[in-house]
Amino acid sequence: MLKKENSQFVEISNLVKEYPNPYGDDFRVVEDFNLKIKAGEFISLIGHSGCGKSTVLTMLAGLNEISGGGIIVGNKEIDGPAPDRAVVFQAPCLMPWMSAFDNVMLGVKNVYPHVSKQERIQIVEYALSVVGLGDEMKKYPREMSGGMQQRVGIARAIALQPRVLLLDEPFGRLDSLTRMELQDVIIEILAKEKLTAMIVTHDVDEAVFMADRCVMMSNGPKAGVGEILEIDFPRPRNRKEVFDDPNFFACREHLLAFLEQRSHIKGDPRVFANGKTLGFMDKEVVEELRQKHEIV
Ligand SMILES: Nc1ncnc2c1ncn2[C@@H]1O[C@H](COP(=O)(O)OP(=O)(O)OP(=O)(O)O)[C@@H](O)[C@H]1O
Ligand SMILES: [Mg+2]
Questions:
Q1: Is 51 in the pocket of ligand 1 (CB under 6 A)?
Q2: Which of 3, 15, 28, 185 has the fewest CB atoms within 10 Å, counting from its CB?
Q3: Whose Cα sits closest to atom 5 in ligand 1?
């Protein structure tokens, strides 16, 4: 029998985020964002820069306060960060004075203080070996390439034994070869550990190759889910086969067309006011702000 949570593991309902803008007005960046994610499903989230992708991801991580609506993970409404959700950001932010092993151990000690020392060591060693750093555990960040450092960042997340893995442009700073290697590392981990995951990316190839569904966000303010595209290449996915498949090209074109269409309705690429960035906005919103605050 399927467990109940197997149908919808994550439920994001009418999610809202308001940030104060430089004038002190509450500014609704995200409004009515709705998404249900099945257990073990991999979602990619794309959209124009500044539309609110990281905002949604960090709210799901519990690191960013929710202004309205709610998020349920495994039948429980979230009210802050918890080890069932781990995040990998673009920069791994490792402690420079600690080895790869100690960087990963830091989080494990925090989250599993009651677990025996031997078990903690096993968890850290396992996480580092899964990301391919089994022989480099003693290395310090300065002795590692950017790709290796990001592997430590991924190991640190995996070691918390999360149910949901959240990735915010995790390969954004890496060269394309390393990027592909790490995409494969993540795909393998998700399959092995049966994790549910969401990746924010600007790379449409990555969004299609990695995910089961690609969620396209509309432009902010009041950004929500614009469209959802099912990506049904069988798993395990073979990169060459997927990239050679005419359907891959069609999916990729679909995402590009969505982004292209949205860039037409976008106003100024980035609106600056009083030296502060207001982000990307629709023309009418920019005009309203300009009139209200008499800016040029
Ligand atoms: N702490 C904050 N205070 C005020 N406004 C914020 C804050 N964080 C984000 N914003 C604004 O919210 C909007 C969405 O930001 P967010 O970082 O979620 O976008 P994004 O889609 O992740 O962009 P990118 O692709 O460039 O990373 C932007 O207009 C941004 O300026
Ligand atoms: Mg972002």
A1: yes
A2: 3
A3: 19
